[in-house]
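ARCHIVE RECORD
Type: protein–small molecule complex
Small molecule: SN-glycerol-3-phosphate
Source of inputs: curated submission
Record status: active
Notes field left blank by submitter.
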Amino acid sequence: MSAAADRLNLTSGHLNAGRKRSSSSVSLKAAEKPFKVTVIGSGNWGTTIAKVVAENCKGYPEVFAPIVQMWVFEEEINGEKLTEIINTRHQNVKYLPGITLPDNLVANPDLIDSVKDVDIIVFNIPHQFLPRICSQLKGHVDSHVRAISCLKGFEVGAKGVQLLSSYITEELGIQCGALSGANIATEVAQEHWSETTVAYHIPKDFRGEGKDVDHKVLKALFHRPYFHVSVIEDVAGISICGALKKRCCLRLWFRPKGLGWGNNASAAIQRVGLGEIIRFGQMFFPESREETYYQESAGVADLITTCAGGRNVKVARLMATSGKDAWECEKELLNGQSAQGLITCKEVHEWLETCGSVEDFPLFEAVYQIVYNNYPMKNLPDMIEELDLHED
Ligand SMILES: NC(=O)c1ccc[n+]([C@@H]2O[C@H](COP(=O)([O-])OP(=O)(O)OC[C@H]3O[C@@H](n4cnc5c(N)ncnc54)[C@H](O)[C@@H]3O)[C@@H](O)[C@H]2O)c1
Ligand SMILES: O=P(O)(O)OC[C@H](O)CO
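STRUCTURE (tokenized, with ligand):
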């Protein structure tokens, strides 16, 4: 292949150097052996990202193998296996109904088989299932494999609070970045324009352009005309935003409306929440960059969209109006999907307690007390105020 012919132009998007956007096309070297991609997870976001990835793998056969495997936690829907439905009717009728999936996306119920000979794994499951998935994958994933985590959450355990990408790296010995943004799955699935942020560090054992995953390959894998991707280095920054925005402040954010309060109250809670997210990053992940919170889709933009229309907000609204507990509301509204804010809220509280830092995060703490100890929602302003006074 000639030097000119073995490079592809990605004209629809722009790689970022820091935040400097380039309007010129990006030249991508054809892969020596097209990268084989597997998506682990087939929920609302898992299926959406699998659609995006499968479209691009079909579109760039010089870079990616055309067939994309999607590992599916098998279940029966009206007597039919979900994998069979996806592979024959090309729809995930339970988690992403009404969206036609590309025919090169193959649902596979066998986790180990789905990662056979794979080069890139895209993790996309509710974070509470990650430890079990990783323990099953151990010994079945070669160290040359690269990964991207689309999960939003933390792993909190004996080692403290850990980014999920770091957890994957530690458990499986593979380099892992993250994808996070203002991305309500159904909007992306319907191809309504959205932005996202991918963060990835090129590892020391990088094998070279055309042989290994770099920022251009990731841009080609995730960028669509309706899904614009910015690729940066700050894995910690985008992961912290994704984990904390909905978990700890978003759920409350809608509550003011449930209580009959207005936009001013909602804005106040978002403002305090963003401050606490940044403080959390500075305290526990000093490598994260403050500008990521303001400038990237994964930062304040995700906070805004999640507060406006995410699943955690829907659960919060029902809690506020019905008086039912969070888990009842999740079950009633989400048909098997997960409002992970409930879990992260507790995990973060326990971590802050261990560190003696609860009082530095009055809003996070107020959310925890409301969800887990039935503190009245209407006391929120005072709870924040009281804790602020404590600080003084
Ligand atoms: N849905 C969104 O709009 C959205 C957008 C951006 C990021 N995210 C993040 O993406 C990640 C995945 O979310 P999602 O929306 O795809 O999932 P989801 O909330 O739709 O969860 C359902 C998924 O969990 C699976 N599941 C159930 N029990 C399981 C088990 N025991 N083991 C393994 N899997 C099991 C189901 O099969 C299904 O695939 C989460 O971290 C979420 O925060 C979601
Ligand atoms: O529906 P939620 O609350 O899980 O949020 C969805 C996404 O994270 C929005 O970016």
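CURATOR ANNOTATION: Confidence is low (pLDDT under 50) at residues 1-6, 12-24.
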